[in-house]
Design goal:
Shape: globular
Oligomer: single chain
Order of helices and strands: EHEEEEEH
Structural class: mainly beta
Strand order of the largest sheet: 3-2-5-6
Length: 96
């Protein structure tokens, strides 16, 4: 397992609540292991179980309103980045 901490999100065009109408949230999953998905809260460390050397973590930023959740973008970290103690920003692809 590895410990992941998401501090915040930026670049959404104003503060997240005003820009999206609600707070965005983030999920973290191990690529290829659908059962290993974690919902992350801002500025809170969470364990991602079942992580093994060679795995990659995929982060998806979501916007949720009363009707549905929409993916705003995805980013990933390789096993090498994670095992070396990555600390920094993860660029999202496909973000608004």
């Amino acid at each position: 397992r590895v410990k992941v901490k998401i501090l915040n999100v930026r670049g959404l065009g104003g503060d997240s609540e005003r820009a999206l109408g609600t707070d965005p949230f983030c999920t973290c999953e191990i690529l290829g292991k659908a059962h290993a998905k974690t919902f992350l809260m801002w500025n809170f460390a969470s364990d991602v179980h079942h992580f093994a050397e060679g795995d990659s973590l995929v982060f998806t930023l979501w916007h949720q309103d009363l009707k549905r959740s929409d993916a705003l973008g995805k980013g990933a970290l390789s096993s090498a980045q994670i095992l070396s103690g990555f600390s920094g920003e993860v660029a999202l692809q496909g973000s608004r």
